[in-house]
């Protein structure tokens, strides 16, 4: 038996228990298994303490079937240990346990010794407990002996090994413990020997400093506790049934009352009560000895095991465990700094809130920890955030009053999250909150139509979409709601009715803004149904659809076509002048099944659609609307469908009208001697804009638009008074003409002479663009430059690749004068101070305009850099580009100095940029070792390169860069940290090491980052210090050096390489210069040798080399420069960073319960439901003052 102090062992009948036994016969034990070995008079005199070994019951060595000399026998062929049997998993766990029990009945010492060695071997220990050790040594001595024999050269043990075999071993290990207790629940677990020994052993092992012992024994103890909870639950049910039978028999009349049966029932109730007392003692021993220490273990996986199992106990036996005494552990651990543990807390709570009966008993817990659960929806671990949202959904289902409006709003905006699982979970929460509640007045509403229930729900969706102030992405909202509200979002009939039908009397009609939102949601729902993949930004790509999903997709596409083929012309007719609505509506036809127009005899509706598109083109000049019309025509003009001729005729008629109108207007516009008025210019511009938009997707070469556009451009160049938008669109249209002509020539569908014509047109247009580069108007110059760069790239020598040698005559290479003009344009229009950029006509005060101008300059630079990459222009022109970066870098350096605020948002922004940049190096440190070492080397040299202008007592000019460089220290392996630190000390003076002023903080923090973790050994078997010191290593244990991880093959050569990078001068084979005078003691010797060698090959290499070493430094000083002016652009471009509370530098919980010293409540199984007395109410265990010392303030915010 287990001795425990101050245990409330008075048996109490459970108040509530779900009976799993349906008849009186369920209480009977025909095999006599409920007879307890070792009980009786001797048992009543006193219980043996935990750990004492009973010496009787096994003098002879008689083995049971399947068990030979303490080893399991498989088919009579081989003997295996219990560990090997469970590891192999060939035998059923039931049969293995039955064989062990039979052997235990004959020789319990030998069989129990085999079970002890089973737990030792499952921990990965190669030692074994002998019979002599078992008989004469205490558990602490046995554990110390096993620790000495543990293999410290490897940190792996069965529970941490990968592979399917070891994953199955963990399952078999847990099943073995559960089956063992279940099979022994009627007799052996009450013999005061087996369970006492096992619990004592596991408690001692769980307190070991050896991680393998602690991890394995904690898992075994928790699974053992779960099995005992099942036994306790069965005992509670049996006692309820026995009490019911006793009451029924006692209420009979005296003549029919069976006194013998009453005595038998009383005796059975007494035995069950004694059994329950013993189970209480066992569970108390495990809970106090293992759980209360290991749920705050240094290893996250051990903490996760404890939290997972306590959740099982509370769900399985809620009468005993679902109270504040145990819920507090889950609440506290929700602040754990490891996501794995926080995730187990949430999953454990989900199992409780899922049961409506249990959720009503969690009101106090919810009120205390609700804020923490809500904050976990923004957890940095996505899995934790998903489960937190799901838990709040269950809380919402249990009670509508628990979550406030602010709590719900914090979840609502997550439907726009880029992480799809989070968005889907938030969508389910939103659906449960807004759409699941139906009032009695809504029960009789029709299923479809404006007055249906879906009509009001769709309106609610629109209202929510418009009230979302954080995002305006309808596709994200639809995708978030798709899994839980797809039927609502597919009710396009109701949506059409809301848009077309007149409101009923007393019904409030949708306003213009709401109708626009409804059209967008309707389009997004159609796209989601027909494409069956999430929007851009969610998901890694298209997945393979199942047969069922393909059928659903086909059915939805058919419904969309049949419904909108009729409704779309009506919608376009109603909203013809609304740009936003028309743009979205014209995207619907690309999801049609065009065959249905013919099979469904819907040709008249197709004609109506084409007429409406014609009207839209005639009325609109907006680019988005015209592009939508062009795209719709392109999709409908598919030669594979029978409607092609009908659509092609309509398209040709539309283009004929546009081209004729353009030529007529152009003649009037270009008449000599007349000043073109604004109305004529507007008519020419609108028509040219429509033609250009259609030419992007349709081949208009048969209309011969090149002559008209070239004439227009030439006239504008000669007169200089052409409106800029007309010139811009004329250039774009001519560009499309040349590209379509090139496509026909490349496909071989052109006639003779087309290639000569294309060559002449292309060269003439390039010369025209070259002349426009030197004009005054910025928009025209930028358009000409961009198109010219594209044409030079397209018609370069690359055009002959892939077997297209016949296009050699089209190759056009720029001459030196053109190259010079392109370079001068970049230098004059890209590398300028942003305050001097007047391209936005005096609107530079607007941040949006600044960002747009910046993007425009980036695009211009990218267009020119492509010419350098593909050798269209001379490669040495790249040096002039790099010179501009170096000039900007030097200007920033001279402006910045070293006096700046390291706490400013700009400096924090560049540190965050460095942190993100460091993450791109990945987890394979050996693969990126040389790159990281060179980064630190160049960074140190840069930081100490410029001395302070104030003298030796002040820090170097660039010392602050070490603060940013420290973000990359974690990417150094341990031995490289020492090498980098030694290299840093070569630049430091003795006075620098003693400085503690604020201006020297970058040096201090960088040195600390190189020294942190230098002595850590993550592969060591010893992972942490236990909370108690009862088990320590013997002095005979292996020396500490034996546990150090050995370098893998090739790592010594890496060390040599890194040392050469930092110290040794590397003389290139092709070096012409002699560097014999250079000394390896000089920090810059190696870099000087490399620089001199490279200068021999390329005189202009110096700017490129400097850029390569300082491209990251340029970004750093760019931000620093803007920080002196005020808030820069980075603040607008940065995405918000949500940092979890566990990782906060101020509120970090290093150990969730460090310093706790409180009395753990004893496990007191609940009273029976027939007991009339009620126990006193327990104190509020969520109150920190009731469970903590006054000195412990880590949970004062709960």
Automatic annotation (TrEMBL):
UniProt KW Amino-acid biosynthesis keyword: no
GO BP of this protein: cell division; chromosome segregation; sister chromatid cohesion
Keyword list, A-Z: Cell cycle, Cell division, Chromosome, Chromosome partition, Coiled coil, Nucleus
Any one cellular-component term (Gene Ontology): nucleus
Family: Belongs to the SCC3 family.
Subunit structure of this chain's protein: Part of the cohesin complex which is composed of a heterodimer between a SMC1 protein (SMC1A or SMC1B) and SMC3, which are attached via their hinge domain, and RAD21 which link them at their heads, and one STAG protein.
Stated name of the protein: Cohesin subunit SA
Native source organism of the sequence: Astatotilapia calliptera
Organism placement in taxonomy: Eukaryota, Metazoa, Chordata, Craniata, Vertebrata
């Amino acid at each position: 038996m287990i001795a425990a102090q101050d245990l409330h062992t008075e048996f109490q009948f459970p108040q509530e228990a779900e009976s799993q036994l349906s008849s009186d016969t369920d209480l009977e034990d025909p095999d006599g298994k409920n007879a307890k070995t070792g009980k009786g008079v001797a048992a009543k005199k006193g219980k043996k303490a935990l750990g004492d070994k009973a010496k009787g019951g096994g003098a002879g060595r008689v083995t049971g079937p399947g068990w030979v000399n303490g080893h399991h026998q498989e088919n009579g062929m081989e003997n295996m240990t219990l560990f090997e049997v469970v590891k192999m998993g060939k035998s059923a766990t039931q049969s293995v346990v039955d064989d062990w029990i039979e052997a235990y009945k004959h020789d319990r010492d030998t069989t129990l010794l085999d079970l002890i060695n089973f737990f030792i071997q499952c921990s990965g220990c190669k030692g074994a407990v002998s019979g002599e050790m078992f008989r004469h040594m205490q558990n602490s001595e046995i554990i110390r002996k096993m620790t000495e024999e543990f293999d410290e050269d490897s940190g792996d043990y069965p529970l941490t090994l990968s592979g399917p075999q070891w994953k199955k071993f963990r399952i078999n290990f847990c099943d073995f413990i559960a089956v063992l207790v279940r099979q022994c629940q009627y007799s052996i677990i009450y013999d005061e020997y087996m369970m006492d020994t096992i619990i004592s052993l596991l408690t001692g092992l769980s307190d070991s400093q050896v991680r393998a012992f602690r991890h394995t024994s904690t898992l075994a103890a928790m699974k053992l506790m779960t099995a005992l909870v099942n036994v306790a639950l069965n005992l509670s049910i049996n006692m309820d049934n026995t009490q019911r039978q006793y009451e029924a028999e006692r209420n009979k009349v005296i003549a029919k009352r069976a006194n013998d049966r009453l005595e038998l029932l009383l005796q059975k109730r007494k035995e069950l009560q004694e059994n329950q007392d013993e189970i209480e003692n066992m569970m108390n021993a495990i809970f106090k000895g293992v759980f209360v220490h290991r749920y705050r273990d240094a290893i996250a996986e051990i903490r996760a095991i404890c939290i997972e199992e306590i959740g099982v106990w509370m769900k399985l036996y809620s009468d005993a465990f679902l109270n504040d005494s145990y819920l507090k552990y889950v609440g506290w651990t929700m602040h754990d700094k490891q996501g794995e543990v926080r995730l187990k807390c949430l999953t454990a709570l989900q199992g409780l809130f899922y049961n409506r009966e249990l959720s009503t008993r969690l009101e106090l817990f919810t009120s205390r920890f609700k804020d923490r659960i809500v904050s976990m929806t923004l957890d940095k671990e996505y899995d934790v955030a998903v489960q937190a949202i799901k838990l709040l959904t269950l809380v919402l289902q249990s009670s509508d009053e628990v979550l406030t409006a602010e709590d719900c709003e914090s979840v609502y905006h997550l439907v726009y999250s880029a992480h799809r699982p989070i968005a889907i979970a938030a969508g389910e929460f939103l659906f449960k909150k807004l759409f699941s509640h139906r009032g009695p007045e809504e029960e009789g509403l029709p299923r479809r139509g404006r007055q249906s229930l879906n009509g009001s729900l769709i309106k609610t969706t629109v209202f929510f979409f418009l009230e979302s102030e954080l995002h305006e992405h309808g596709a994200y909202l639809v995708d978030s709601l798709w899994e839980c509200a797809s039927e609502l979002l597919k009710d396009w009939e109701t949506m059409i009715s809301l848009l077309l039908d007149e409101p009923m009397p007393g019904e409030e009609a949708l306003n213009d803004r709401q109708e626009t939102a409804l059209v967008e949601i309707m389009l997004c729902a159609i796209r989601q149904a027909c494409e069956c993949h999430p929007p851009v930004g969610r998901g890694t790509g298209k997945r393979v659809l199942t047969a069922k999903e393909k059928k659903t997709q086909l059915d939805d596409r058919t419904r969309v076509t049949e419904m909108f083929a009729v409704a779309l012309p009506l919608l376009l007719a109603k909203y013809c002048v609304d740009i936003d609505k028309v743009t979205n509506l014209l995207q619907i036809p690309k999801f049609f099944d065009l065959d249905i127009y013919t099979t469904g005899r819907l040709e008249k509706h197709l004609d109506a659609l084409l007429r409406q598109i014609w009207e839209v083109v005639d009325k609109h000049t907006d680019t988005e609307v015209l592009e939508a019309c062009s795209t719709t025509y392109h999709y409908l003009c598919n030669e594979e469908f029978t409607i092609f001729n009908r659509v092609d005729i309509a398209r040709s008629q539309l283009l004929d009208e546009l081209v004729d109108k353009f030529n007529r207007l152009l003649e009037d516009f270009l008449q000599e001697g007349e000043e073109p008025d604004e109305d004529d210019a507007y008519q020419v511009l609108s028509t040219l804009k429509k033609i250009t938009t259609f030419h992007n997707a349709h081949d208009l070469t048969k209309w011969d638009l090149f002559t008209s556009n070239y004439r227009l451009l030439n006239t504008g160049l000669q007169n200089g008074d052409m409106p800029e938008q007309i010139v811009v669109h004329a250039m774009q249209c001519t560009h499309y003409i040349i590209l379509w002509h090139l496509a026909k020539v490349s496909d071989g569908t052109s006639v003779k002479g087309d290639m000569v014509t294309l060559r002449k047109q292309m060269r003439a247009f390039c010369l025209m663009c070259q002349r426009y580069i030197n004009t005054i108007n910025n928009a025209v110059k930028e358009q000409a430059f961009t198109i010219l760069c594209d044409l030079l790239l397209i018609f370069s020598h690359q055009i002959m690749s892939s077997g297209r040698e016949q296009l050699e005559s089209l190759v056009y290479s720029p001459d030196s004068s053109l190259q010079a003009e392109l370079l001068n344009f970049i230098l004059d229009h890209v590398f300028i101070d942003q305050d001097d950029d007047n391209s936005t006509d005096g609107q530079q005060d607007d941040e949006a305009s600044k960002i747009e101008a910046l993007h425009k300059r980036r695009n211009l630079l990218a267009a020119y850099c492509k010419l350098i990459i593909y050798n269209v222009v001379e490669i040495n022109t790249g040096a002039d580009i790099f010179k501009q970066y170096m000039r900007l870098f030097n200007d920033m350096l001279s402006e910045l100095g070293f006096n700046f605020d390291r706490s400013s948002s700009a400096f924090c922004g560049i540190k965050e940029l460095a942190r993100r940049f460091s993450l791109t190096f990945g987890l394979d440190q050996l693969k990126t070792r040389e790159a990281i070492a060179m980064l630190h080397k160049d960074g140190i040299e840069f930081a100490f390169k410029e001395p302070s202008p104030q003298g030796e007592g002040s820090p170097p000019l660039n010392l602050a860069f070490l603060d940013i460089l420290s973000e990359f220290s974690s990417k150094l392996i341990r031995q490289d940290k020492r090498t980098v630190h030694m290299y840093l000390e070569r630049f430091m003076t003795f006075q620098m090491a003693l400085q503690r002023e604020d201006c020297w903080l970058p040096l201090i923090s960088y040195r600390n980052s190189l020294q942190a973790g230098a002595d850590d050994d993550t592969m060591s078997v010893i992972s942490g210090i236990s909370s108690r010191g009862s088990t320590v290593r013997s002095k005979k244990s292996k020396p500490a050096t034996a546990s150090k991880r050995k370098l893998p093959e090739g790592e010594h050569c890496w060390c040599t390489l890194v040392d050469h990078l930092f110290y040794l001068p590397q003389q290139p084979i092709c070096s012409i210069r002699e560097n014999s005078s250079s000394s390896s003691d000089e920090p810059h010797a190696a870099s000087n040798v490399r620089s001199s060698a490279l200068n021999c090959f390329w005189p202009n290499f110096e700017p490129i080399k400097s850029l390569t070493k300082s491209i990251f430094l340029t970004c750093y000083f760019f931000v620093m420069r803007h920080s002196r002016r005020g808030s820069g652009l980075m603040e607008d471009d940065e995405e918000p960073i949500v940092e979890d509370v566990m990782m906060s530098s101020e509120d970090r919980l290093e150990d969730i319960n460090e310093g706790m010293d409180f009395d753990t409540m004893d496990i007191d199984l609940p009273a029976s439901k027939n007991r009339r007395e009620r126990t006193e109410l327990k104190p509020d265990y969520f109150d920190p003052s009731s469970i903590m010392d006054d000195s412990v303030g880590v949970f004062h915010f709960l």
